[in-house]
């Protein structure tokens, strides 16, 4: 029985062991996200849907053809009272039943709009809507790229910190072993050994916390790229290039998708206003119909005149003109509302221009400050490592205390973590700078 219980566990372990680890570069992660993330897929579906919206509006300008059929049975015919004067019987009232017990008809009708300003405006709006969704797709892809890139760098930095802690753990373990050897030989105090043991335990706890943090950040990254959470991923070791990015006076924000979307919304609101104003214009349409009707005392289908069932046809062709005269000022109110919406959006456009310009200025400043911080932290890290090496040698020779050694070790660890954090700050600032220039898609090239 115990063996039977162990079999599923064994298979699970073997399947996890055999699971392929997927290597993800930044470009791989971005490409995967654009192909699989729900946001990117939905924005592409919106473009496809806009084509059907255009077809729907276009249908209003095409002929509308309708076929109809009917079958009626009249168990009681309506009686009409007629003055007998019409039938040469003055002073009398004649009751007559008109119609037949059975009536069946079939016909086809056509309606074609010849002039309708609202239809023409609708066609222009539908095409502009398609362009709006195309810009929205570009903006959505940029948002996906920005989000994924930030999470990718955060995973990388956490892994770097984990590697650093593992190295510190190995170094501290060696020092603890040396102190233990000294203690066993009566050359060190028990408090020194206890302090090293506590320090080692703290580093082990940090390592476990970082392992958990890396896993959580990896899961977040997989979510943001639309990858199954159970997939194992590996981020290759890469030396991030840190150099002053190309800075210009100010990029052309009119090429930013955020700005282009607002301008396209402005076009739509203008068309919406014109569509409302189309109510002031007359409409003209052509209509035509042809019908065939059969009447008699029995079911007309298949019957002829010999059965007292008679079939006849009729048709009509007409022009329909509608001229609006007074709508109770309703149309005027709608036009004013459209004006207000348009003016409000124009204020949003002005504010967005300022915000996009601010984004670039702030990103440029952050890039410069991050480079200065990186250089400072790099020098601090070099000095801390040199101090740690010298203190370690002095401790082994009895020229430095354990407190000095632990302080030097902590200072070295802090300097390395600060350098790693500075690299992350730079990469995040770099993403913001690339975004502010409207060049996020260069990350997948």
UniProtKB/TrEMBL annotation:
Q: Does the keyword Isomerase apply?
A: no
Similarity-based family = Belongs to the outer membrane factor (OMF) (TC 1.B.17) family.
List residues traversing the bilayer.
none
Give the organism the record lists.
Mariniflexile aquimaris
Q: What is the lineage of its organism?
A: Bacteria, Pseudomonadati, Bacteroidota, Flavobacteriia, Flavobacteriales
Which intervals of the chain form a coiled coil?
335-394
Keyword Membrane in the entry? The reply is yes
UniProt KW keywords: Cell outer membrane, Coiled coil, Membrane, Signal, Transmembrane, Transmembrane beta strand, Transport
Q: Name one Pfam family in it.
A: OEP
Its annotated compartments are:
Cell outer membrane
Q: Which SUPFAM superfamilies match?
A: Outer membrane efflux proteins (OEP)
From the UniProt annotation, give the residues forming the signal peptide.
Answer: 1-18
Q: Which domain of life is it from?
A: Bacteria
Query: InterPro entries from the entry?
Result: OMP_efflux, TolC-like
Q: What protein name does the entry list?
A: TolC family protein
């Amino acid at each position: 029985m115990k063996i039977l219980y162990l079999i599923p566990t064994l298979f699970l372990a073997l399947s996890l062991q055999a699971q392929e680890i997927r290597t993800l570069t930044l470009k791989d992660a971005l490409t995967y996200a654009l192909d699989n993330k729900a946001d990117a897929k939905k924005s592409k579906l919106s473009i496809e849907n806009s084509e059907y919206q255009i077809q729907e509006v276009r249908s209003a300008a095409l002929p509308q053809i309708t076929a109809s059929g009917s079958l009626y049975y009249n168990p009681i015919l309506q009686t009409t009272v007629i003055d007998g004067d019409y039938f040469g019987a003055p002073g009398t009232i004649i009751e007559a039943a008109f119609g037949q017990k059975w009536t069946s008809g079939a016909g086809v009708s056509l309606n074609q709009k010849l002039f309708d300003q609202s239809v023409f405006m609708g066609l222009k709006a539908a095409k502009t809507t398609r362009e709006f969704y195309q810009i929205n797709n570009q903006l959505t892809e940029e948002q996906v790229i920005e989000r994924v890139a930030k999470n990718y760098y955060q995973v990388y930095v956490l892994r770097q910190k984990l590697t650093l802690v593992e190295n510190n753990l190995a170094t501290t373990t060696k020092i603890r072993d040396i102190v233990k050897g000294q203690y066993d030989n009566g050359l060190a105090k028990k408090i020194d050994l206890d302090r090293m043991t506590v320090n080692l335990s703290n580093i082990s706890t940090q390592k476990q916390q970082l392992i958990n943090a890396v896993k959580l950040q990896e899961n977040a990254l997989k979510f943001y790229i639309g990858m199954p959470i159970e997939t194992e991923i590996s981020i290759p070791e890469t030396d991030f290039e840190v150099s002053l990015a190309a800075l210009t006076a100010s990029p052309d924000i009119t090429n930013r998708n955020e700005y282009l979307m607002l301008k396209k919304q402005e076009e739509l609101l203008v068309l919406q206003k014109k569509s409302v104003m189309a109510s002031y214009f007359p409409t003209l349409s052509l209509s035509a119909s042809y019908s065939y009707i059969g009447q008699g005392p029995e079911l007309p289908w298949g019957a002829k005149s010999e059965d007292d069932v008679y079939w006849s046809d009729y048709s009509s062709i007409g022009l329909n003109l509608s001229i609006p005269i007074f709508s109770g000022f309703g149309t005027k109110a709608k036009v004013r509302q459209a004006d207000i919406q348009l003016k409000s959006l124009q204020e949003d456009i002005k504010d967005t221009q300022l915000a996009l310009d601010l984004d670039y200025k702030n990103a440029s400043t952050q890039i410069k400050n991050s480079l200065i911080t990186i250089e400072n932290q790099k020098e601090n890290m070099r000095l801390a490592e040199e101090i740690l090496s010298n203190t370690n040698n002095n401790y082994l020779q009895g020229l430095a205390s354990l407190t000095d050694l632990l302080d030097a070790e902590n200072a070295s660890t802090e300097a390395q973590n600060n350098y790693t954090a500075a690299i992350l700050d730079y990469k995040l600032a770099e993403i913001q700078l690339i975004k502010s220039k409207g060049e996020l898609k260069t990350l997948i090239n």
